[in-house]
From TrEMBL:
PANTHER family: HISTIDINE AMMONIA-LYASE (PTHR10362). This is Histidine ammonia-lyase. Coiled coil: none annotated. Pathway: Amino-acid degradation; L-histidine degradation into L-glutamate; N-formimidoyl-L-glutamate from L-histidine: step 1/3. It comes from Bacillus infantis NRRL B-14911. It is an enzyme of class 4 (lyase).
């Protein structure tokens, strides 16, 4: 059981809860803050103080006052009208993360909701009742309004969920799980949807995949180094200390570790003086991607523990302040950085693939073919890698530089952070396939060189990967090999 406080959630805990299905529970102290905040909202309603989102309309309607008897209907209307998401649903892992992050944000005690609402979010999470949330429709400011409205609909039994392997009306899942009906009260609808949990959840899931892939990319690159008799002098610690970037230093250290004991690598002057950049500059390029990923991790962990709805309630309700914490610009930038970082891992990987298959660039058999000419070997695998890399260049265009006014120009600057997070995830899927292709080619090259001469660590990975992708002894449908290898990488088996 992982305890949520509203301020201490880490990406490692997200990983355990979202993917390993560890249960989450609210700390006693955080629930006390929730109770106090809700009591402040109850008093505001009773005293008929005019507060945005409690007894006023929303967006351009913020100047429209709402009668006290209609404050509950106001919240329900908000959720129904804002549930305008379209397209394919987010993966269930993202839906789980959204439940978790929304509960954690409410536990900060600035949102005015009842403890029962937090409990409903955590019950959905722990009972694996996952709201069906369309991916498209958020501008990434005023929060992820459309996606989070679909989450809110599921909580009250009006949306859809994935439950026990089936997509069904949430009312059926709620009844099956033995949960009581749930009705929104003052401010609760707004508190559920005025936040950045769609982009942050998609970003967190994408980051966890990207981090794993970045480590895998180094091991795969090490195997390529062996297949091409690469020069290990380029990884000498002194070179990287001389520049000073810690991530570059760390990458070089891992490359030295992976290749320790290899009889397939060379030193400068043995076969050639220098390698091409895609080999020689692995620490510099991969290290720079790690710099961006470290930035992304920092911003995600701040946002996961942030109060991002509006208005926020302070001083036991004496001060209710309208602001803009729902604006997703910090995460939008982070997602665009992650897109570029992972796209570059695929870019340099594709260049290494070319060196493995191009007979003009190495002494390996043309296209790693067992019978060059009769058998095409890995020729078209490089085509696929090039296609994926090209697609990534389009997806890597920054979403955060765009903005379209909304709500009659009241909301006149938005972040498009959710688009950025979705594109980041797509880039990671493409990059995983590119690196799967490099792994397949690197294994084949290692066989030509002599598997028995590989470093112990790369040899271990070679043996595991050969259980997934057999040696190329003749042409076959390589699409299946690529997809199987990519799935293996996503499962994180390569360790």
């Amino acid at each position: 059981m992982i305890e949520l406080t509203g301020s201490t959630l880490t990406l490692e805990q997200v990983k355990v809860i979202v993917f390993e299905k560890e249960h989450a529970a609210a700390s006693a102290g955080s629930m006390e803050r929730v109770k106090e905040s809700h009591e402040a909202v109850r008093k505001i309603v009773e005293e008929e103080r005019v507060i945005y989102g409690i007894n006023t309309g929303f967006g351009k309607f913020s100047d429209v006052l709402i009668n006290q008897k209609d404050v509950k209907a106001l919240q329900l209307n908000l959720i129904r009208s804002h549930a305008c998401g379209v397209g394919e649903p987010f993966p269930e892992s993202v839906s789980r993360a959204m439940l978790l992050l929304r509960a954690n944000a409410l536990l900060k005690g600035f949102s005015g909701v009842r403890p029962e609402l937090v409990e409903r979010l955590l019950t959905f999470l722990n009972e694996e009742i996952h709201p069906v949330i369309p991916q498209q429709g958020s501008l990434g400011a005023s929060g992820d309004l459309a996606p989070l409205s679909h989450l809110a609909l599921a909580l009250i039994g009006e949306g859809e969920v994935f439950y026990k392997g089936k997509r069904m009306p949430s009312s059926e899942a709620i009844e099956s799980a033995g949960l009581p009906p749930f009705h929104l009260e003052a401010k609760e609808g707004l508190a559920l949807i005025n936040g950045t949990q769609a982009m942050t959840s998609m970003g967190a899931v994408a980051y966890l995949e990207a981090e794993q892939l970045a480590f895998q990319s180094e091991m795969i690159a090490a195997m390529t180094m062996e297949g091409l008799n690469g020069i290990t002098d380029a990884f000498d610690e002194r070179i990287h200390q001389a520049r000073g970037y810690q991530q570059q230093i760390d990458t070089a250290a891992r490359m030295r570790d992976y290749l320790a004991g290899s009889r397939l690598t060379t030193v400068q002057g043995e076969l050639r003086v220098q390698d091409a950049y895609s080999l020689r500059c692995i620490p510099q390029v991969h290290g720079a991607s790690w710099q961006a990923l470290d930035y992304v991790k920092e911003k995600l962990e701040i946002e996961m523990n942030a109060a991002t709805d509006n208005p926020l309630i302070f001083d036991e309700g004496e001060k209710v302040i309208s602001g803009g914490n729902f604006h997703g610009q910090p995460i939008a930038f982070a997602m665009d950085f992650m897109k570029i970082a992972v796209a570059e891992l695929a870019n340099i990987s594709e260049r290494r693939i070319e060196r493995l298959v191009n007979p003009q660039l190495s002494d390996l058999p043309a296209f790693l073919s067992p019978e060059p000419g009769l058998q095409s070997g890995a020729m078209i695998m490089q085509y696929s890698a090039a296609s994926l890399v090209s697609e990534n260049k389009t997806l890597a265009h920054p979403a955060s530089v765009d903005s379209i006014p909304s709500s009659a120009n009241q909301e006149d600057h938005v972040s498009m952070g959710t688009i950025g997070s979705r594109h980041a995830w797509q880039i990671i899927q493409n990059a995983t396939r590119v690196l799967a292709i490099e792994l397949i080619c690197a294994m084949q090259a290692a066989e030509f060189r002599g598997v028995e001469k590989m470093a112990s660590k790369t040899r271990k990975i070679y043996e595991k990967a050969r259980e997934i992708v057999p040696s190329i002894t003749k042409d076959r449908v390589f699409s299946k090999d690529i997809e199987n290898c990519a799935a293996w990488l996503k499962e994180g088996i390569m360790k």
